[in-house]
């Protein structure tokens, strides 16, 4: 089964130069639409190259989940071949390998969400989960081209949708009288699947802030969520800052239960991410699901991956460990280096490195309280400061230069467990 899956292959509808070259190397003649799915493309012997680049992922659905004023809004757009062709969306090719992962044996959304609710309301109770070991396909993070493809998938999730009108309501129907412009706020999930629907990738769209990206459409809610997820106490930096929740009690003292409820609020990104996952799994109930994202989207993907035990590649994510703890996300009883959540970043990105803070940083000047530093997963760090003489700058957080940078390396960095990282240690949480 696994071998058959690894060898299945269908030509993408749109091939970029780079991908074309890759396919050529794989011994594939481009331009042919292959009718047979799930069979080896070339006569035997199958080379390693072919297995590495099968199967191809294409965009299938876009979810848009409302937040802030429209938390019940949840729309889905189904994407077919003609749309992909018209919008120039290509397919993505990644290599995978079999790995034994440890995750909760009971992982359906109803169970997980009721656990999250229970853990939050009952406080820090030790819950004895039933853990299971499963052999599943995971992305091959030692393969340079696979990493680059994942980065491109996250970049694709930023691409605005050129067509409008064919959204399907999957939450409560949107009430037009509530106001227009629902698409200016909220979280977006782009769902990709391989040709057999065996593996599905959810790419979560992150920060559009003018500070981090050139132009975006979800700036306001992104900023609120950034400040909620990555600050010690509701972005209560000083009395001059407007806070995103009311958990501050007194100097360096913050209410823990208040923070936990704020993060889990219906109108914030974490719950929206859970809804996108729930809807995706109901479309692909038997699929092996992977998650990815960049920046805030990277952090959300890591939180989702942690919640459900999904292989996750997060790019340039701010430290999300504190949020994972506040949400009581399950941590499997395995050595940290066995975790399949990979945080990819570079040393010249102050957001990823957790140094975009302090009164003179661009983050603070922009009103972003990016105080956390710790990632809850393995860190795969490109040392661009030493290798490339990059200066620490917010521009090294953007996904485009990151993709070029990753291509310029022949290998991928080793992914290692961070050592004893603790955020906000000067605060008391009661
Ligand atoms: C839409 O909102 C308006 C004003 O808030 C309300 O009067 C109306 O009943 C709502 N319609 C639906 C279908 O919920
Ligand atoms: C894969 O899922 C799509 C829905 O996105 C469905 O139309 C298609 O028939 C499925 N293909 C296979 C091979 O199951
Ligand atoms: C999709 O998500 C909405 C919440 O936004 C939920 O009410 C609905 O039940 C979900 N649908 C499926 C099929 O999971």
From TrEMBL:
It comes from the Eukaryota. Keywords: Hydrolase. This is Alpha/Beta hydrolase protein. It comes from Lipomyces orientalis.
